[in-house]
């Protein structure tokens, strides 16, 4: 079994939290929009159409984020390894420049 850098797990958790937060925000925005527009929907007799369309959008967005989280979880080392490599190089360069002053 390969040694896993703890920074990979940390970055993955942070990305998962951001993705879940984004999905929650989309659900809240759709809920708020539906709530504020419900009288216009009722007046136009399109309430059920808007419910179905909104549910489709919410389902597809939620499924896409779930698939992204699953993919990132399966291939963490490759996805985050490059980021960590360049972050380490940047940190070393900053130390080198700071030390040469």
Strand content: under 5%
The rough form would be described as elongated
> Percentage of helical residues?
over 70%
* Count of extended strands: 0
Look at the helices and sheets and give the structural class. Answer: mainly alpha
* Computed CA radius of gyration, to the nearest angstrom: 22 Å
Biggest β-sheet description: none
The span between the termini is: 43 Å
Assembly type:
single chain
Number of helices, where a helix is a run of at least 4 consecutive DSSP H or I residues: 3
Model description:
The protein is an all-alpha fold and 101 residues long. The longest helix has 39 residues.
Task: Please summarize what this structure is.
The chain crosses the membrane at residues 16-35, 47-69. The protein is mainly α and 101 residues long.
Identify the notable features of this structure and list them briefly.
101 residues, mainly alpha, 90% helix, membrane, transmembrane, transmembrane helix
How are the secondary structure elements laid out?
Blueprint: H1 6-44, H2 47-74, H3 76-99
